[in-house]
Amino acid sequence: QVQLVESGGGSVQPGGSLRLSCAASGFKFSSYGMGWYRQAPGKACEMVAAISIAGSGTNYGDSMAGRFTISRDNAKSTVYLQMNNLKPEDTAVYYCRPRSIGIYDTYMDNECEDPFFDAWGQGTQVTVSS
Description:
Helix content is 0%, strand content 44%. It is built from no helices and ten strands.
C-alpha cells in the first residue's frame, strides 16, 4: 500500500528556512505527480505545492509562490519542499501525497482531495514563531 514518510519539520523564527522531505513507496513514484499539503488547527486543508511527473511543471498556493520550491528525485522516490522566508501563518502540519490529477486541477472543490489516493503519512510539524 502507499506509504509516505515526511520529515524535516521543526520550529523556526519568522524569516527562517526549512527543507521538508517525503519518502514514498507502495506505488510507481515516477508515474504520478506529487503534492505537498498543510493542515493548521481550525483551518481547511490547503495545497501548498504540486509537481508534475518529470518535475518540469510546478504549481503553488497563492501565499507560497516565491517563497517555497517543490522538487523531486524519481530515483529516490522522494519529493522535497524548500521553504524560505517563513511566516507565522505557515505554521501547520505538512503532508505529501501522490496526485492522480493534474497539478492545476482540483477534485470535488477540495484542494486536498484526490479521486485515487486517500492515504496520508504522519506529517511533519512546522512551527514559525518568534
